[in-house]
Amino acid sequence: MMDYEKIKAGVQLMLEGIGEDVTREGLLETPDRIARMCAEIYGGLYEDASVHLKKQFTVERNDIVVEKDITFYSVCEHHLLPFYGKAHIGYIPNGKVVGLSKLARTVDVFARRPQIQEKLTSQIADALEESLAPQGVIVMLEAEHMCMTMRGIKKPGSKTVTMVTTGCFENNFELQNRFLSMVRQ
Ligand SMILES: Nc1nc2c(ncn2[C@@H]2O[C@H](COP(=O)(O)OP(=O)(O)OP(=O)(O)O)[C@@H](O)[C@H]2O)c(=O)[nH]1
Ligand SMILES: [Zn+2]
């Protein structure tokens, strides 16, 4: 599990490093606050998506399922700054579906870790692929990276869009376009 004492010591060192007075009132509890926050924003490190995807329902028809505009917050592993936006997930079942909330839970399991957007996108797709064995999965993420906006190149409003396809969505542009038009509706 997470080592709160290490996190607190690290935060204290960083504050000292930037020249802050760690004994002033406003900062006194900050290492502890950040340790508690880490449990929340990096809690996905201790979660297994397959637990959420275990319960499945049988369906008679294998029509496309799309869950779109799933808000997510993650942290870029290069700068530890937030990136956040919307996840859109589509799949074509193979006789089984999962509860809709479980798609959003799967996004959270992988978003709540130090991440890069490409890996987050493929981890979501792989988890669905493995647990559900559908005919195909498509995952698209659109996000703003604070390391691109508040520092460095400073390009507010720029969006990073990533997409991963598996199975029947791979190289099938008609199916991909169907998903995209449902997402854009
Ligand atoms: N591929 C990818 N890159 C990311 C993501 N989040 C942040 N980055 C980039 O990671 C790169 C790290 O580059 P470095 O050159 O090592 O770091 P840096 O000097 O801080 O880079 P600048 O942001 O250009 O100032 C930057 O180009 C970031 O824009 C992500 O989710 N995916
Ligand atoms: Zn970054």
UniProtKB/TrEMBL annotation:
Q: What EC class does the entry list?
A: hydrolase
Enzyme Commission number(s) of this protein:
3.5.4.16
Q: Where does Zn(2+) bind?
A: C76, H79, C147
Q: Does the keyword Transferase apply?
A: no
Q: Name one GO cellular component term.
A: cytoplasm
Q: In which pathway does it act?
A: Cofactor biosynthesis; 7,8-dihydroneopterin triphosphate biosynthesis; 7,8-dihydroneopterin triphosphate from GTP: step 1/1
- Reactions catalysed, as given in the entry: GTP + H2O = 7,8-dihydroneopterin 3'-triphosphate + formate + H(+)
Its domain of life reads Bacteria
* An annotated GO BP: one-carbon metabolic process
Q: Which UniProt keywords apply?
A: GTP-binding, Hydrolase, Metal-binding, Nucleotide-binding, One-carbon metabolism, Zinc
Q: Which residues cross the membrane?
A: none
Query: Which ranges carry the GTP cyclohydrolase I domain?
Result: 8-183
State any single GO MF term. GTP binding
List the InterPro entries. GTP-CH-I_C/QueF, GTP-CH-I_N, GTP_CycHdrlase_I, GTP_CycHdrlase_I_CS, GTP_CycHdrlase_I_dom
> Which family does this protein fall into?
Belongs to the GTP cyclohydrolase I family.
Q: How does it assemble?
A: Homopolymer.
The protein's name is GTP cyclohydrolase 1
Q: What is the lineage of its organism?
A: Bacteria, Bacillati, Bacillota, Clostridia, Lachnospirales
